Every structure is written in C-alpha cells, then in structure tokens.
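Consider the following input, taken from an annotated entry for ArsR family transcriptional regulator (Ureibacillus yapensis).
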Amino acid sequence: MDYSLMEKQLKAVADLNRIKLLACLKNGEVCVCDFVDILGISQPAVSQQLRKLKEAGIITERKVGTWKHYRLVEEQTPLMRGILETIEPMSPCCCTGEKKC
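Applying the prediction step yields:
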C-alpha cells in the first residue's frame, strides 16, 4: 500500500465528525443537507469535512440539482475496509420542508 495514501486516509478518519459521516454513509448515499442536521454544524463546515474524506479517496459525490449526494467508494483499500467494518451504521435524517433533495 502507498504510505502517502495510508497517511491521508488515517488523518481523514481521525475526527469524530468524519466518523459520523462515514457511519451514515454505510447505509448508502446521503444528501449534504442531511449531514448538516446530523452534525449540527453549518453547511460550509460539513463540506470541509466531506472534502477531506473525498480527497482521501474514501467517498465520492454526485450532483442532483443544487445538492450534492455522497456515498462510499466501492473499492476501498484494505486499511479502510477494516476501519469501516468497525464503524456502526447510523441512520441519516431525511431532507424535509423547503429542502428538496
């Protein structure tokens, strides 16, 4: 394994908010608006957390209208597979009200 990638992935998962994001993503694709409600932080702060996971090759995104939806990358490194196996899935809330995802 590439040690540089290993370092990037370990740094990416060494944060409680990012662990919560991964726990939600274990159930499938999630809209960024749901993460705002789950973490109780601003959308720009959530985007920064997601960016770190994306740069580490752990998650990917797709745009749906004005919203971005995130999911785990299908092919994870052995290191990340082991870490993800230890994280309990967490159910994300659903977008409601004026938020249309």
